[in-house]
Write a structure and sequence with these properties.
25% of the residues lie in helices and 22% in strands. The protein is an alpha/beta fold. Strand 5, helix 5 and strand 6 form a beta-alpha-beta unit.
Length: 411
């Protein structure tokens, strides 16, 4: 029996539905952005009414809500800050994630019940900086993604501050998101919520007047996404307070898959002290089913190499594996009511992804429309159909097709 303490599993959410999915699938906390003072201004983001509803939902399920107040404000960007922070406190928000020192100190004065977490935008990479913020009364530091495991191990010998680290998601080509490309090229300021992700564009690259590429392989400078599964046990042994998934603009299916997988991994490590080779393989297979870019281990093993970059590659892969969202299940008639997401047919081998349960495979044999008429294909997104199965399905479970080349699931 392991004595490792479980860290907080912190998941992203771009809207209320994704917040609820993250909580239902096992997140201990969810971080969201409001309509003001937040990066990711192109995400849907939460109204104050949504924040209150999401906070109440999370609390009812034993989870917490963190709100990003992480823009780097110019002089005219601070109007309404006091009212906003007080409203977040009143709504029951647990913490705010802050990049501006002025906002951090101000929040402690006027909304003392809010924890203040210092954002990764501060590029904090050492114990001296961590202890500075601890002395200022802050509650947590989100470390820069550029910290290696060896550096983290040494840093944690010299601080008692709760630390949050990233374990999955997008990496920035610039240091901890301090990028000026977007602002320079599009007048959209990445540090005020408007990043155009210029690093993921495709460019013509020249050496003098000579092109260094052909027209089918343009240059881009983005990195592979972070995937830290192999490092979870060591992070837990070190005692990190929170493990964070990046991606407030990602889909419901993406969030459910990631949270479900990391929840299983963290729980196994807490129980046994390690993630078995079989479980590691199974978890990696699960993560590959997300609609995302290829992954690497970021800076955990040291300085990333050329193979960890996505030169010439832009955007996430779309798998179309997610085929249906479960709305209801009639146990007496063994009929599941589902919402179609991607095309599928009868005689499709599928698997059920459900909160806190093992993934189960089954064959879709009988399919009906809402009037009970037989179907052989479901190909209209958002259409409501019914499928017959003896497998009991809970609302908010997700069904995906099994690709022929997949290995059998270990769990």
């Amino acid at each position: 029996m392991s004595t490792l303490r479980k860290p907080e599993l912190l998941a992203p959410a771009g809207d209320l539905k994704r917040l609820k999915i993250a909580v239902l699938y096992g997140a201990d906390a969810v971080y969201i952005g409001g309509k003001q003072f937040s990066l990711r201004s192109r995400a849907n983001n939460f109204s104050m009414a949504d924040i209150a509803e999401g906070t109440a939902f999370a609390k009812a399920h034993g989870a917490r809500v963190h709100v990003t107040v992480n823009m780097l404000p110019h002089e005219g960007d601070l109007d309404g800050l006091k009212e906003y922070l007080c409203a977040l406190q009143e709504a029951g928000v647990h913490a705010i994630i802050v990049a501006s020192a002025a906002i951090a100190m101000y929040a402690k004065q006027i909304a003392p019940h809010l924890e203040v977490h210092i954002s990764t935008q501060h590029s904090i990479t050492n114990a001296a900086a961590i202890n500075y913020w601890q002395a200022k009364g802050m509650d947590r530091v989100v470390l820069a993604r550029e910290v290696s495991m060896a550096q983290l191990r040494e840093t944690m010998r010299h601080t008692t501050m709760p630390l949050e680290v990233f374990i999955h998601g997008g990496m920035c080509i610039s240091y901890s998101g301090r990028c000026m490309l977007s602002n320079h090229m599009t007048m959209r300021d990445a540090n005020r919520g408007g990043c155009a992700q210029s690093c993921r564009w495709k460019y013509r690259l020249y050496g003098g007047d000579q092109p260094l590429h052909d027209e089918t392989h343009h240059f881009s400078m983005s990195s592979k996404d972070l995937m830290a599964l192999p490092y979870l046990a060591e992070l837990m042994e070190l005692g990190v307070a929170s493990m964070k998934i990046e991606g407030r603009m990602k889909s419901t299916y993406y969030i459910a898959t990631l949270v479900h997988t990391y929840r299983r991994a963290i729980d196994e490590i807490a129980e046994t002290g390690r993630l078995s080779d079989a479980s590691l393989q199974a978890c990696e297979q699960e993560l590959h089913k997300c609609e995302s870019r290829p992954t690497a281990n970021g800076f955990y093993a040291g300085m990333p190499r050329a193979k960890d970059q996505l030169y010439g590659v832009n955007g996430a892969g779309v798998t179309n594996e997610f085929i249906a969202y479960v709305l209801d299940y009639d146990e007496q008639n063994q009929l599941a009511t589902v919402e179609v997401r991607n095309k599928f047919t009868t005689h499709t081998l599928a698997e059920l992804l459900s909160p806190y349960e093992d993934t189960i495979r089954f064959m879709i044999e009988e399919l009906y429309d809402e009037d009970g008429l037989p179907l052989t294909v479901a190909n209209q997104p958002k259409r409501i159909v019914k499928l017959r199965t003896a497998i009991k399905m809970k609302p908010h479970a997700m069904i995906r097709k099994v690709l022929q080349e997949e290995r059998p699931l270990v769990y």
